[in-house]
Write a structure and sequence with these properties.
Blueprint (H helix, E strand, L loop, with lengths): L24 H20 L10 E6 L5 H12 L3 E6 L11 H10 L4 E7 L1 H9 L5 E6 L4 H15 L6 E5 L4 H12 L3 E5 L8 H10 L2 E4 L2 H5 L4 E4 L11 H7 L6 H6 L5 E4 L11 H4 L6 H19 L4
Parallel strand pairs: 1-2, 1-3, 3-4, 5-6, 5-8, 6-7, 8-9
Helix pairs in contact: 1-5, 1-12, 2-12, 3-4, 5-6, 5-12, 6-7
The chain binds phosphoric acid mono(formamide)ester (CP).
Length: 315
């Protein structure tokens, strides 16, 4: 489906945003159009107070710069309030159940809950016991808001999504999983090049193949050939132990100028950040003219605001 021919209604049927697989292509487009509108209003300084009187809980189990700041500032910009709850300072860290936490947070009057650093089973349990929207700010298997922001950024830069090719190089982690589902649902082709043992999980790849063209390979050249976008992420994710063996296997999967030269001439470089220059990408690529990683990062703000507005049935 061509996003440029889609007419947004600025409505979402989904109450929660846990995984991109739960969203239809139309629902993804609704979010992307809402992000475009949010960004336009932000740029012209239009005041949008749609979260006035509402408080969002930010329950974070791991560290964050982009996700936290994009939510905290975004909620303020929409006239709302938030409570930042580090998981290790709540009774969850001492064994209180997810169910009791979820029910109680709703009773106290939170209007939405963002969870970061939880496993999928906990996300599902929070959603099952919450009357308020539950949003996945990163889990062990997925990073849906990051990838929605990435796809929004691609749409901005390339003017379309359909038939573009994104090549992901490196560890088949939660970002790679969400890219597979997000790109395939938006009619983008995605190729993942990873060393053996570090490909994305089979169930996610099979799910992505139901929606679009997904190629899994160990060949960087095959993945990057004719790519419009080359994407990478850190070798060792936050949820992983430092692993020298894994780093050694991924060493050859660094995005360099030579790798970029295998893609289309006008290919863009993307990274969800934080970046480790010299590990998964060389500095001349990360800071070079093809890199759009700071645009991706900025768009986290507009995208998060759009998601809050849509899930809380406002715009
Ligand atoms: N990309 C991303 O999620 O950034 P943070 O870890 O800083 O939130």
């Amino acid at each position: 489906m061509d996003i440029n021919k889609y007419s947004p209604k600025f409505r979402l049927k989904n109450k929660d945003l846990l995984h991109l697989a739960d969203l239809s292509t139309e629902e993804i487009f609704e979010i992307l159009y809402a992000a475009k509108q949010m960004k336009k209003k932000y740029r012209v300084g239009e005041i949008v107070n749609i979260l006035r009187g509402k408080t969002v809980g930010l329950l974070f189990g791991n560290v964050s710069t982009r996700t936290r700041v994009a939510f905290e500032l975004g909620i303020r910009q929409l006239g709302g309030d938030y409570i930042f709850l580090p998981k290790n300072e709540t009774q969850l860290s001492r064994g209180e159940s997810v169910k009791d936490t979820a029910v109680m947070l709703g009773r106290f009057g939170l209007s939405a809950l963002v969870l970061r650093g939880f496993v999928d089973a906990e996300l599902e349990e929070f959603a099952a016991h919450s009357d308020i929207p539950v949003i996945n700010g990163i889990s062990d298997t997925a990073h849906p808001l990051q990838v929605l922001s990435d796809i929004f950024t691609v749409w901005e830069k390339k003017g379309k999504l359909e038939n573009l090719k994104l090549a992901y190089i490196g560890d088949g982690n939660n970002v790679a999983n969400s890219l597979i589902i997000g790109c395939s649902k938006c009619d983008m082709n995605i190729s993942i090049a990873s060393p053996s043992g570090y490909s994305p999980v089979k169930s996610v790849v099979e799910r992505g193949m139901q929606f679009g063209d997904v190629v899994i390979t160990d060949s960087i050249a095959e993945a990057v050939r004719d790519a419009d976008i080359v994407y990478t992420d850190v070798f060792i994710s936050m949820s992983d132990e430092d692993d020298e063996q894994k780093k050694a296997k991924l060493e050859k999967y660094r995005v360099t100028k030579d790798v970029m030269a295998l893609a289309k001439e006008d290919a863009l470089f993307m990274h969800c950040m934080p970046v480790r220059r010299g590990e998964e990408v060389t500095a001349d690529v990360a800071d070079g003219p093809q890199s759009i990683m700071y645009d991706q990062a900025e768009n986290r703000l507009h995208l998060n605001k759009a998601v809050l507005a849509l899930l809380m049935n406002e715009r």
